[in-house]
Amino acid sequence: MKTRVADLDFELSITYSVIERRVQEIATEINVQYAGKTPLLVGILNGSFIFMADLVKELTIACETAFVKLASYHGGTTSTRTVRTDLDLKSDVRGRHVILVEDIIDTGHTMRYLVNKLKDNSPASIAICTLLLKPDALEANIPEIKYTGFEIPNEFVVGYGLDYQELGRNLKGIFKRVD
Ligand code: IMP
Ligand code: MG
């Protein structure tokens, strides 16, 4: 299935039903590993909003949710490697088991920045749960990545919360760029 977002063409790469099944599997792992710990799930806005919603619906353990807003792409199709904080975390993370919920890890600079910042506030633990990971694009060392939905090649994707120029977040699956 093909679609156009702004001036670029995309084709379906991961269907919604495949995503749904993977989200259930990840939730099952979190349900087991965080039983009795009441984790604080922190979604990174804007991209993670759909993944975060689908994920927490599958959690059966006690959990809290919060959001931060970070930006590193600023409208293009490549990372700028400078991270801007648009909305800071209001929750107290001291002594908490924090799970950062991200749409995609590309260069990894956004996550490295956020994890370093959170560590100053003494959480009990920090884990990262990302729907997508581009291993070939990673420039930072991020041992905190504990849950990955799908590893994808180094290509630009939209849909399921991810955008190109703020468009395409509403597409139901993940779509990759084609020439
Ligand atoms: P990083 O700091 O390079 O890892 O960039 C991470 C952020 O860039 C993600 O949270 C996304 O918002 C955005 N991003 C990275 N790759 C893509 C992509 O293929 N499509 C849309 N946004 C992306
Ligand atoms: Mg993001």
Q: What summary fits the major beta sheet?
A: 6 strands, mixed
* Average predicted local confidence, pLDDT: 94
Residue share in helix: 10-25%
Report strand order across the widest sheet: 5-4-3-6-7-8
Query: How many alpha or pi helices?
Result: 3
Structural class: alpha/beta
Number of domains: 1
CATH class: Alpha Beta
Rg measurement, Å: 16 Å
How many strand segments? 10
Strand content: 25-35%
Overview of the structural elements:
21% of the residues lie in helices and 34% in strands. It has 179 residues and is an alpha/beta fold. The protein has a single domain (17-152), classed as Rossmann fold, CATH 3.40.50. A 6-stranded mixed beta sheet has the order 5-4-3-6-7-8, with helices on both faces. It has a 4-stranded antiparallel beta sheet with strand order 1-2-10-9. Helix 2 (49-57) links the parallel strand 3 (40-45) and strand 4. The protein binds inosinic acid and magnesium ion.
What is the element layout, followed by pairings?
Blueprint: E1 2-5, E2 8-14, H1 16-33, E3 40-45, H2 49-57, E4 64-71, E5 84-87, E6 97-105, H3 109-119, E7 125-133, E8 145-151, E9 157-158, E10 174-178
Parallel strand pairs: 3-4, 3-6, 6-7, 7-8
Antiparallel strand pairs: 1-2, 2-10, 4-5, 9-10
This protein binds inosinic acid (IMP) and magnesium ion (MG).
Inosinic acid (IMP) binds next to strand 6, helix 3 and strand 9.
